[in-house]
Design goal:
Elements: H1 4-13, H2 18-39, H3 49-61, H4 66-85, H5 112-119, H6 127-142, H7 146-150, E1 157-158, E2 163-167, E3 173-177, H8 180-193, H9 216-227, H10 238-251, H11 256-263, H12 268-271, H13 279-289
Antiparallel strand pairs: 1-2, 2-3
Helix pairs in contact: 2-4, 6-8, 6-10
Length: 295
């Protein structure tokens, strides 16, 4: 398979997910196809920046967003970095490349009232209702990602310590605390789950009525369906619940470092995207507490 050594390195050494590795593969193959068609060149290892620039221009002309183009360039950059590491090239053709400017996406979290109204929709009177409620509760109360949610295994639950083991990006594990209310929802769901005919070796917590592991698309549709009934926000997704989790914690006085650890971010910079939503709360506290505003 083309680029197989690089892709194996990304998955086995760098611990990238299969989904990410597949995206890298598609980006590299599309670039290789362009180079072959445009310049009649079979290999991309020896391309120069002007050829890459020509590809970027073609992507812009096709209507692709700057964000999407930068992601594709990131795949190329990783590939040439690998070639440098393995001494197959001496200089990366992307050494002087500057990413395209992108507008910052403003994520609008659900309000606490919207969360409350959505939770009120669940009855827990069936396996599906109990499971769907648990999906929303886990996403909102722990801030985990959609992919992390569907990969939770039964053995990852620790009821005695009220914690959950989560396998994050690049196979990094972290332990997140569980609220008492979530533990109760888990117990109810597990009672319903025990009545489902599942394979004896089914390790995953969240399953369909047929005993099959849930998909990311199913989780998205579940969140979107329930929050469409209580919110008029344009975006209603699992990531918005993750964003709401971080924002509400910050509004409640949690520190950015603690929120970073709970989210599974490697750096504070990654977690800082959530702080803008807390400015209103910070402003209110500032107005109330500052000595110059006592009157």
């Amino acid at each position: 398979m083309p680029f197989s050594t690089f892709l194996d390195y990304m998955q086995l050494e760098k611990k990238y997910s299969g989904h990410t590795v597949l995206a890298y593969q598609k980006d590299l193959e599309n670039f290789a196809l362009y180079i072959k068609d445009r310049f009649e060149q079979d290999e991309i290892d020896s391309v120069n920046y002007s050829q890459i620039r020509s590809w970027i221009v073609s992507l812009v002309e096709s209507g692709l967003t700057s964000r999407s183009i930068n992601r594709k360039i990131s795949s190329l950059r990783a590939y040439y970095k690998f070639l440098l590491k393995t001494k197959q090239i001496e200089v990366s053709p992307l050494a002087q490349h500057i990413p395209l400017k992108t507008s910052k996406k403003l994520q609008i979290p659900f309000s606490e009232k919207e969360i409350e109204n959505a939770m009120a929709l669940f009855k827990e009177d069936s396996f599906e209702a109990s499971r769907d409620k648990l999906i929303v509760e886990l996403l909102y109360s722990t801030g985990i990602r959609r992919a992390e949610l569907i990969n939770i295994k039964l053995e990852d639950l620790n009821f005695s310590h009220k914690t959950l083991k989560v396998l994050g990006k690049r196979n990094k594990e972290r332990i997140v605390p569980l609220l008492d209310s979530v533990c109760k929802s888990l117990e109810k769901y597990l009672d319903w789950r025990s009545q489902i005919d599942t394979p004896t070796d089914q390790p995953y917590l969240l399953i369909s009525k047929k005993g099959v592991k849930l998909t990311e698309k199913f989780v998205y549709l579940t969140v979107n369906t329930y929050f469409s009934q209580v919110s008029e926000k344009v975006k209603k997704s699992p990531h918005v619940l993750r964003h709401s989790f971080a924002t509400h914690l910050l509004n409640g006085g949690a520190g950015l470092n603690e929120v970073k650890d709970l989210l599974g971010h490697a750096s504070l910079a990654s977690a800082q995207e959530y702080t803008h939503s807390s400015l209103k709360s910070l402003s209110r506290i500032h107005q109330k507490a500052h000595p110059r505003n006592k009157n």
